[in-house]
Double-strand break repair protein AddB (Ferrovibrio xuzhouensis), 992 residues
Amino acid sequence: MPDRAAPAVFSIAPGRPFLDLLAAEILERWGDAPERLSRVTVLLPTRRACRALTEAFLRQRDGRALLLPAIRPLGDVDEDELDLRGAGMMDGRAGDDALPFAPRERDLLLAKLVRASPLAGGDAAGALRLAHQLGQLLDTAATEEVDLTGLIGLAGSIDLARHWQATLDFLDVIRAHWPAIKAEAGRLDAAEHRRLVTDRWIAHWQAEPPQNPVIAAGSTGSIPATARLLKLVCRLPQGLVILPGLDRDLDEAAWTAAKDEPTHPQHMLARLLDSLGVLRGEVAEWRSEDSSGAPAHARLLSAALLPPGETHRWRDLPAPEDAAFAGLQRIEAPGLHEEAVAIALALRETLETPGRTAALITPDRVLARRVAAELARYDGLAIDDSAGRPLAQTPPAIFLRLLAGAVAADFAAVPLLALLKHPFCRLGRSRRELLRWTRRIERSFLRGPQPETGIEALGRRLAGDDRLLPLFAAFRQAIAPFARLRSGDSLPLPDILRLLTGAAEALAEPQRDGGETMPLWQREAGEALHDLVTELLQTGDILGPLPVAQGPRLLDALLEGRVVRPRHGSHTRLFIWGLLEARLQQADRIILGGLNEGTWPPQAEEDPWLSRPMREQLGLAPPERRLGQTAHDFLQAACGSDVILSRATKVDGTPTVPARWLLRLDAMLKGHPRWTATRAPRYLAWAEQLDQPETAVRSEPPMPRPPVEARPRSLYVTDIQTWVRDPYAIYAKRILRLRRLDPVDAPPDARLRGNIIHDVLDRFLKRHADALPADDAALDELLALGRAAFGLWLDQPQIAVLWWPRFERAMRWFVGYERERRAAGFMPALLEQDGALSFAAPAGPFTLKARADRIDRRAADGAVAVLDYKTGNSPGVKEVNVGLAPQLPLEAAIALGGGFDGLTAREIAELVYISLRGGAEPGRAVNIRGRDIPPPTDIAMLALEHLQGWVAQFDDPDRAYLSRPRPQFVQYPGDYDHLARVAERAEGGEDA
């Protein structure tokens, strides 16, 4: 091995611009001549850091062109964050034919093995997810250079549950056969390939040491092969290793403890120095003439992040200097929305100073997207999240997922409309034309309860509409090949994908001669999706035939883990970085967002393949090691001259726990006035003011006074009850002619159940108006009528399990009640009969209408009884008596006035509500009578008299249609409450 007097190891302190200092020193040492600079090789941890160093060189030369050094990625990042496509730091192969697996190729091979085991339960999507995690385990073992032969003795050394024993048995099969599978495919695991390439690089430089400068910068050496490379580089004739943020102020006791504490930010650097054979005191400061050592921020954070066994020394530490708090601010927002608005304001504030830059660093992608959306309100200010957006959440992937979901759901209303309303859906027509067609189908055919689904059922419903049929035919033709698949079919993954993408392309075909291109494969997201589909078409046969029914879940599993990163940032001075993207980068203002436990630092993920004791026995690093890297990221970012620490105290209504570093700072600095003063309430105050109106406008209750001639001159008795309780609802329904839209594919509701029971009883009583059949025969006939009325609804479990037993109990009760009525002398006279009664009013005749469920006549004296069926709660006797439930009395008044054809009534014998709920009390007859209740005839005439007075009041043009003038009598939400702002007035009281 080449050697020199002492290894050349340097460090750049936290808070200093790492890449700018690196570029400045390289230019000072070798930039005097272009040929000298081009011979320098710089190794950096990530590809993004390589691009950032290129920009740093340009900044140092004020944008003037120069011949750059060879800048190459080192690959030293956490194994769960690696982008291993094309992994390796040299162009070429680790062996004659050994190339790394394509990203999904290995997952598919492993998924095939997992599917064949009992672990996946036959679920292809679950097998693919398990396979991906198994691949991560193989990469971890290859990265940490752990031999999986240790699995052989693992079962006997630990007392394992049955599940873990089965898992170990499967892993032993993988250990034994996976090398042969790789050899047959001519492939290597990506981490294995990277290690072999690194080892070849080391061997090459050991044999022929480069005489030109080689600089490895920014690596913490967490990967053993990288640590070996760094050890070689620091001993090359012109080799240099530059560490990021080595803590020189940590005393020896804490430094020693950090070596054994994986969560400490210096843990990996301490272990790296040991492997390099370098003492901490031997590490020189890079560009020492420009540095005064670690900034005060760094010393404060270093003390707060002492290893757990050393925190007792906090009470002996001297008071922190004022400089430690300079430029440090904190935001504690009540929720995620407020945090995003406050961060966006802090970023926007930076732009007020020319040339100043700012960056949000957060692992919380939801917060990142919210901040980007909030920034867009400032003249459309655009900013991209450099950590990327999940491919599954991009428009092209969503379109494919919607199509797969619609077919799997047999084109039920909601999935169908979601597909048709996606912006990519065109069918060769203009978007406006397709949306107009979609909305017409939605309003006419897809709202309300849907007894059957499927493209054929929809076609039957559209059969009589010539306006809708042409586009429906085009839609059916576009999806026909894919829609012909049945849930029980099985096809290879490439065949499923060809049918899926073919249907998607047909649906997304742009308007002919419209100047538009196929949107499905456009831009970064479309290209990324195209790459994934192409890869799966080439390798998807590995899994063999797959059940079509599992298509949507399998597609989701295939999309998991893929992200789409912008090629170029949208703004030159504002940035959003993930933790990996932020490493070695610098901005004038740094905002650390989402500082809550479980988000930053992220929660340690449990391995489904190896438990914690099993990993320890095998020799794998504990999951907490990633926390040490995250702590290092936090400390590096938090040591700038202008730093904002931000968190939300609640997320989705759930209280959060501050990140452990904030808790440590609170514990160490509790009561310190400068720490308390770091709170920055102005950003939250600005956020609150941002959406506050300049003046509060009182919400007056609506008081519409339409012209008398526009007011209704006829109403049904069911509307009268609404009119009495909520006049505004009648105004909206009868004058504005507004109708509530039923929900799309609404679940079966009480109205449907009531209509079915009304229809069954009407048919039954019309058949047997004179005499009832025997009890059993009557019940059998009612149940047969019920099966016919329920029809396809009985195929739904909710109807079959809940509604039908209630219907049976209600019908059994009804047969007995009907016999009792007829024994008392009552026989049906009218069933489902329309009636009307007109009377004079100040603005002209007013007509009262009704459709009576049933009117009986008593044989003894000819008096009639008015009955109404209820499948829910029926009004009480007092409500009817005081006029709040006037339906039955007004129907009786119409009968007394001769308003029902074929019926003459001089006296009302009964007013009866028949409740048919079918529960513990299957049925009940509520007869409107009592000691203090007038006779039914008097109730009817009094209800008519009250109605006449009510009509006269509203014939006055000054009478307003008030919203809920008696709210205590309105028990249920109304269809027009949102228009009347009922909730707003209820929450705000009189001042709302």
User: Anything to note?
Assistant: The first strand starts at residue 9 and ends at 12. The mean pLDDT is 86.
